[in-house]
């Protein structure tokens, strides 16, 4: 038998090369290339009898047309409404999900609660822990009050042993692997956690899910950049990639879908970490606006939308004169390049000079906003902080700003405005096409066709407030 030639694989991006080098040419990482032996043929892979026969002649595959009945994929409802929302209505049979998140964020707690709920509903659930002993998992279950749930637990890292266990007895409906970086297979000559081992272990678990119909959830570590560790090909192999986000200094957690073949990719689930585990947050707008100071300048309420869920969140800005040669631009929870664009439009189209000021922008509550509808709220918060004039306490803002200074309409204004009306807001600063939707929601529309019109309105409000303050001082 010919000796397998070693390959050199980057542990950061998974790129393979025939020789070693100090810097990966694909991703630019230094000292990340490790020599690994080429993967031996896996059972059922390219070296098996079935695949070898297929190399000679293949079978004829039936071709179908685009028309015809399309049955919806069967779902396995977890019982956690926020989790089911993100997955698209539940777990699809035979699907593989990859869940990533920082250490200690609550990934194992979330999956343990979901597995206990499914086990109590009569489904067979297998929880395989590769990082903790079975006793540690049982202790967590006792703290969460889930020790009586009939979840099958195992502490194992060998892929072959895990697959043999899953095939013995009643087929499980849900399999949780915590985590994929700890698994190893004897078919690959490399250490656990390397790119080759992670790819081979993920391929074996995906093959098991597709052949048996069980839903498999793989837990993945993340790098310092927030990306799931291991080869990116694993993210392409699985059916859904979920990220569990949160701030260590806050109690709430956000579950976000980055990829989903069976549902939307812009839905989020909101949880709150408590002493009894993760609790679902059905009204996240009230959570993010709970500690709001209505009289503080530089704070604007954004009527945002995450998937099909409207969320109201506060945008906070602080503009102060800079003592540095290059003014500081600090952004938390928003895109820094988007902030630079808004600042440029304010200066070029509205005459607002911010070149000599430090600008600090943050989304209150630690939520990360990605939609362009936040442009108008960000601009209002910046101008409010610069003028030291609070914005109307009962107003929400949304709209996209173009480079010409025009305010463009955004999608789904109706749900945004209905959520604002439900929480007691009576005015909405918005693009003119959304005025009709505001009237239907019971909110008074304040049309802002251009950004300079909004700036002029805020400046007039600041002047009137300053005149009133001076009169009270004189008296």
Automatic annotation (TrEMBL):
One cellular-component annotation, GO: cytosol
GO process terms (BP): recombinational repair
Domain RecA family profile: 72-222
GO molecular function ontology, one term from the record: hydrolase activity
Encoding gene per record: radA
Sequence motif RadA KNRFG motif, residues: 259-263
Name used for this protein in its record: DNA repair protein RadA
Binding site for ATP: 101-108
SMART domains reported in the protein's UniProt record: AAA
Keywords, ordered alphabetically: ATP-binding, DNA damage, DNA repair, DNA-binding, Hydrolase, Metal-binding, Nucleotide-binding, Stress response, Zinc, Zinc-finger
Keyword Metal-binding attributed: yes
């Amino acid at each position: 038998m010919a000796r397998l030639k070693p390959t050199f694989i980057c542990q950061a991006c998974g790129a393979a090369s025939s020789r070693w080098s100090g810097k990966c040419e694909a991703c630019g990482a230094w000292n990340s290339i490790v020599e690994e032996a080429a993967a031996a043929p896996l059972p059922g892979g390219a070296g098996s009898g079935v695949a070898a026969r297929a190399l000679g002649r293949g079978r004829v595959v039936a071709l179908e047309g685009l028309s015809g009945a399309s049955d919806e994929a069967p779902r396995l409802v977890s019982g956690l409404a926020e989790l089911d929302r993100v997955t698209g209505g539940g777990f699809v049979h035979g699907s593989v999900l990859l869940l990533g998140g920082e250490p200690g964020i609550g990934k194992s707690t979330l999956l343990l609660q979901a597995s206990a709920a499914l086990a109590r509903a009569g489904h067979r659930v297998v929880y395989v822990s590769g990082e903790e002993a079975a006793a540690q998992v049982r202790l967590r279950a006792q703290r969460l009050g889930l020790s009586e749930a009939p979840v099958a637990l195992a502490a194992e890292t060998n892929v072959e042993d895990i697959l043999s266990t899953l095939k013995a007895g009643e087929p499980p409906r849900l399999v949780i692997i915590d985590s994929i970086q700890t698994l190893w297979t004897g078919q690959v000559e490399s250490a656990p956690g390397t790119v080759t081992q992670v790819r081979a272990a993920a391929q074996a678990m995906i093959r098991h899910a597709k052949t048996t119909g069980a839903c498999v959830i793989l837990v993945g570590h993340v790098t310092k950049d927030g990306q799931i560790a291991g080869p990116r090909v694993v993210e392409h192999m699985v059916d859904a990639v979920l990220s569990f986000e949160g701030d260590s200094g806050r109690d709430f957690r956000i579950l976000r879908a980055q990829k989903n073949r069976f549902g939307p990719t812009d839905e989020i689930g909101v949880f709150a970490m408590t002493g009894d585990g993760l609790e679902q947050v059905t009204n996240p707008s009230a959570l993010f606006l709970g500690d709001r100071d209505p009289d503080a300048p530089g704070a604007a309420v954004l009527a945002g939308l995450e998937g099909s869920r409207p969320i109201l969140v506060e945008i906070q800005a602080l503009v102060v004169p800079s003592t540095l040669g290059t003014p500081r631009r600090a952004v938390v929870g928003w895109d820094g390049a988007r902030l630079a664009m808004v600042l440029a439009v304010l200066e070029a189209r509205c005459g607002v000079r911010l070149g000599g000021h430090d600008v600090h922008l943050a989304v209150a509550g630690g939520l990360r906003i990605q939609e362009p509808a936040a442009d108008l709220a960000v601009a209002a918060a910046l101008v409010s902080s610069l003028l030291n004039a609070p914005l109307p306490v009962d107003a929400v803002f949304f709209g996209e700003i173009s480079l010409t200074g025009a305010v463009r309409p955004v999608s789904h204004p109706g749900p945004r405005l209905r959520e604002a009306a439900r929480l007691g807001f009576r005015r909405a600063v918005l693009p003119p096409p959304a005025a009709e939707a505001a009237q239907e929601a019971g909110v008074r529309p304040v049309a802002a066709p251009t950004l300079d019109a909004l700036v002029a309105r805020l400046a007039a409000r600041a002047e009137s407030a300053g005149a009133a303050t001076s009169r009270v001082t004189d008296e």
